[in-house]
Design goal:
The chain is an alpha+beta fold. The protein folds into three domains: 190 residues, Aldehyde oxidase/xanthine dehydrogenase, molybdopterin binding domain (Aldehyde Oxidoreductase, domain 4), CATH 3.30.365; 142 residues, Aldehyde Oxidoreductase, domain 4, CATH 3.30.365; 298 residues, 2-Layer Sandwich (Aldehyde Oxidoreductase, domain 4). Helices cover 29% and strands 25% of the residues. Strands 12-13-10-20-17-18-19 form a seven-stranded mixed sheet. It starts with 8 loop residues before the first strand and ends in an 18-residue tail after the last helix. The N terminus is likely disordered.
């Protein structure tokens, strides 16, 4: 999910400084919050805590979710730096749902690292004040080191744990001094992540691993067509209960396997609306082409006089690109465990939005927040799908109907066929060139369904920024530019997908740049260098990727390189892909070189891992990712017909991290947008065939590679 919110201010409130048994808990409020959460009507503030106990344990409570991106470790790393403690002394846990934030837009660290620094520094200063009070010396004579407060005059020391209770009574400093970057011990170094040991020894608890005493198990079956509902349903053999969920049914049994067997045999009649026949990919594309010409276009960005630029152009180019609906295809399917009693409700879920879960449960149970406990678990991928509330609401309804704790688990088929898909898009780029081949006018019109409009977050006459991001605010000097948005009325449920609109518009923009380079007989790197000449930071990233990727050096016969650039989530990324075309219907991506400037990398290992993961994810989508609809029915059912990259097909990825010192940018998503155009540009150079419609190989199922 995109989030371009500026860094929130920190407000440390004395009333939130809570004494606890045998220690203290420092709470702080981050004002501003998450844009997407605010758009949904969620609370505009988020919270996190630093908890120090008398047993010397130090726990950082994180308001975001850990979905494999290393956010828990990264934020704990920041806290440990300011607390002046060893890395081994710190652990991270999820904060209460009421104080959580939505994990999306690569915002966990970039939006919350600085406020957490301040809160941790405040805790350190309060511990120092407690030590000084114990020795009756000025705080200026004391320092914090390795979980202790040290008296620099006598060299006496007291542990944080022994000072925790007294520290709770100390004034909260409004502007505590921060550790200067020159003295960092942990930030910027590749420390071992806190979540890896449990994931490797099998003790980590994902949503699908949750067990509750006396629980039952549920499986779900949705109406096969978009917009369909349950007309009638009866119980089935092997089920404890069958629950009507409106657009789906759930069967409850003693095991997940038994529940799946039962739900597949439930006698159900579906009410298929007549409008389902219109939910058709081919029809949508035809409509989009008509709307490209006649649709009510909204201006997303305009600079200069584009009309005059085209009227006076020596040459014009026009290219249209098409991108498909995409499923999230998380390795862990949707699941949720719920226990409801007359006095309270507990929910265990792999969720990117614990606060939204709290609101969902409150609405369904009519219970106050104080009676509800949300337990966020680790998740096997989120990719934007697990901010949604459909599977949460289903699990709550089923548990209420069953009268016992229930774990609801979607099958892979239900997961893929009932997704909140990345929208399809049709984009037309027109370029005006002067006599020297320079770009003097750029016009881009994007036709796509609106994520925000579907959810009621914006009216129909407002540009959906999720659809236009990556197509506006470009670093390139195009002279005059115009970006327009036309909302397609498609009713397929759409949602946030890793890098959202950037994954669409980077393909469009970077493919078009290469097409301009070809039309003007210009090296694609040199063209980008000229267009970025006034942006030294972006130009540096581009040049570093080109150097790392060996741009301009010799290649094996039958190989070619392509380059692409994209700025997203406050980070700048450029990628060079080396590909071959060994046989018809295949592309082999051998190497990808990536340079990223994310400002300051908290943990370089995590940044590298996220670049690799983003490239593999984006490459799978570019080569094979596609969901088609016919009569409202999605084509995707499993990895057998929704192809993903095999391990042996993965390219070698080299990463150059540029520590520019700019404000921290995101890393979970920015690796995705450049990979599709980098491969497309290499493929065009190699084969003289320009791919303007993704995926490269539509309809490809899983194969042996």
């Amino acid at each position: 999910m995109s989030n371009t919110t500026t860094l929130p201010a920190v407000k440390i409130d004395r009333r939130q400084f809570l004494a606890t048994t045998g220690g203290f808990l420092l709470a702080f409020t981050l004002e501003g919050g998450n844009k997407a959460a605010n758009a949904a009507g969620a609370a505009p503030t988020v919270n996190a805590w630093v908890k120090i106990s008398t047993d010397e344990s130090i726990t950082i409570l994180i308001g975001g979710s850990e979905l494999g991106q290393g956010a828990y470790s990264g934020l704990a790393q920041v806290a440990a730096e300011e607390l002046m403690v060893d890395w081994a002394q710190v652990r991270a846990e999820p904060a209460p749902a009421a104080q959580s934030w939505v994990t999306g837009g690569s915002s966990n660290i970039r939006a919350h690292a600085q406020p957490l620094r301040v809160a941790s520094a405040a805790a350190r200063e309060m511990l120092i004040a407690a030590g000084a009070a114990t020795w009756n010396v000025p705080p200026s004579t004391c320092i914090a080191r390795q979980g202790k407060v040290i008296n620099t005059i006598t060299n006496d020391s007291l542990t944080f744990g022994s000072l925790a209770t007294l520290a709770a009574s100390m004034p909260v400093p409004a502007n505590p001094p921060l550790v200067p970057a020159s003295e960092y011990r942990l930030v910027g170094t590749p420390v071992k992540r806190t979540d890896i040991p449990a994931k490797t020894n099998g003790s980590a608890i994902y949503g699908i691993d949750v067990t509750v005493p006396g629980m039952l198990f549920a499986a779900v079956k949705h109406c096969p067509s978009v917009g369909g509902t349950v007309k009638s349903v009866r119980t089935a053999t092997g089920s404890r209960a069958v629950v009507n969920l409106g657009n789906a049914i759930a069967a409850v049994s003693t095991t997940t396997e038994a529940a799946r067997s039962a739900v597949s045999n439930v006698p159900v009649i579906w009410n298929i609306p007549s409008s389902a026949a219109g939910v058709d990919t081919a029809l949508y594309i035809t409509q989009a082409k008509q709307m490209m010409v006649n649709g009510p276009a909204l201006v997303a960005e305009q600079q200069g006089d584009v009309t005059t630029a085209f009227q006076t152009a020596a040459k014009t180019l026009e290219m249209t690109y098409t991108l498909p609906y995409l499923a999230h295809a998380c390795m862990e399917v949707l699941c949720c465990t719920v226990s409801v009693s007359p006095t309270g409700c507990d929910v265990w879920a792999p969720t990117q939005a614990p606060g939204w879960v709290l609101g969902t449960v409150m609405a369904l149970t009519n219970m106050p927040a104080s009676s509800i406990n949300v337990h966020p678990t680790l998740m096997g991928g989120g990719l934007g799908r697990k901010i949604e509330q459909d599977y949460i609401a289903q699990a709550v309804k089923v548990a209420m109907a069953a009268g016992k704790p229930v774990k609801l688990t979607w099958s892979r088929e239900e997961d893929m066929a009932n997704d909140q898909y990345r929208p399809f898009a049709l984009a037309r780029v027109r370029v005006a060139l002067d006599a020297q081949g320079n770009i003097k006018g750029w016009a881009n019109r994007i036709v796509s369904p609106s994520i925000l409009f579907q959810r009621g977050w914006i009216p129909g006459n407002v540009v959906d920024t999720q659809s236009t991001e990556g197509g506006t605010g470009l670093a390139y000097n195009f002279g005059s530019r115009l970006t327009e948005y036309v909302r397609h009325p498609g009713t397929v449920p759409v949602g946030f997908w890793r890098s959202v609109g950037h994954s669409i518009n980077a393909f469009v923009v970077e493919s078009a740049i290469d097409e301009v380079a070809l039309a003007t007989n210009t090296d694609p790197l040199m063209l980008r260098q000229r267009l970025l000449a006034n942006d030294p930071r972006s130009l540096n990233v581009l040049n570093e990727a080109a150097k790392l990727g060996g741009w301009g050096t010799s290649l094996p016969a039958g190989h070619a390189r392509g380059i692409a650039f994209a700025a997203s989530f406050n980070s700048i990324v450029a990628e060079v892909a080396e590909v071959s075309h060994p046989a018809a219907g295949t592309i082999r991506v051998h190497k990808v070189a990536v340079a990223i400037d994310c400002g300051s990398a908290i943990n370089p290992d995590s940044v590298e891992a996220q670049m690799q993961g983003g490239i593999f994810h984006g490459l799978s989508a570019a080569l094979w990712g596609e969901v088609k609809f016919t009569n409202g029915v999605a084509s995707a059912r499993n990895f057998s017909n929704y192809r993903v990259l095999l391990m042996r097909e993965a390219p070698v990825v080299s990463v150059k991290i540029i520590q520019s010192g700019a404000p921290i940018g995101g890393v979970g998503e920015p690796g995705v947008p450049p990979i599709a155009p980098a491969v497309a540009n290499a493929y065009a150079k190699l084969t003289r065939t320009r791919v303007r419609t993704l995926p490269f190989f539509p309809g490809s199922g899983m194969s042996d590679g």
